[in-house]
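Appendix B, example 12.
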Amino acid sequence: MVGAPSIGIAVIGAGQVARRGHLPAFKAQPGMDVLAIMDIDAGLAERVAAEFQIPHWCGSHETLLEVPNVDLVDICTPPQMRFPIIEAAARAGKHILVEKPLATSLSDALAIREVVNRHGVLLNVVTNYRYFPAVLKAKERIASGRLGRIVTMNTLVSQPFPSDNTRSTWFYHPAGMLFDFAPHAVDLLMWLCDGIVERVVALGQDVTGGDMGFTNYLQLLMEFDSRAIASADISWVTGTSRFTVDVHGTGGHVSIDVRNNSFMELHGSFTPLDDTKAFLRRVLGITRDVLTGKYFQGAFAYYPQLMQEFIGSIHGIRRVPSPIEQGLMVTAVLDAAHQSLCHGGTPVCVRDLFPSPALYEEIVAVLRG
């Protein structure tokens, strides 16, 4: 940002998301100075430091936090490992950027919020799928009232097994895909309609009948405080890659093909002319993104804008784009879904998962404010 001092950044976790997404975004922008990288595989940290010309590398977050002039710690580790790192970074007075999900349980998310607030640092959860231009356009149209009152939403997420692109095994906990890509789907549904999920029902299965030991396809049903209802169909097992969101209101419909950055709005009857226009816009948009190379980057292409906005909040010129309360409430919905899965699809009230009604109301008030 013009005139603003550079922000010193330390990255924890040197895996694919750091190498393909975070580090290229930081290195390509002025005012973001990557000073250190850490990974429990110190050899990997050393190699990535050499690749991205990072002056310091190490194998522990304690050592990394001793590097001078670090203002922001960027956490790209598996979610099960994050709480002690976030606690140490907050205690050291560092602002925090953390990959989704914030945590794999509401209790951990609440503990993270407490420690971040106690030490007065900012935390932003990565929500890069919000920054696809088609998603931003849909958000604008919904917020302007063009769709009337939102009544239902549907999202379809189909992703290949993580083994297609990583050797990491942390994905394969009992909830499986629920804490892999579902955080993006739940976040988009909540963000698009600016709503609070009150009740969750989840049904899921292991396609092998239990041999894998984790959920690899599931359906979520979410009831919002506005009485809108959303469904999410999430799978690792179809052999395809899709991410679509449909929003239906009393005054119209919006359909988003997130992965292909395509947006369509419909009022009244859908005619062959509408279909043709939508097809042409889709083809032209994909062609443009292919020619510029952005299509092949996928969601990694949208890290720079997210990071610029968070840096702006550190400089005090804007609000945190995806504050801790949003990440916490997504975690609460996922936790409710996991409990529903474990009890054969029993409905779970999100409010009931919080240790006290007062704390739930406090967080809801922050989100609505």
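The longest strand covers residues 150-158. The domain at 130-300+322-368 is CATH 3.30.360.10 (Dihydrodipicolinate Reductase; domain 2).
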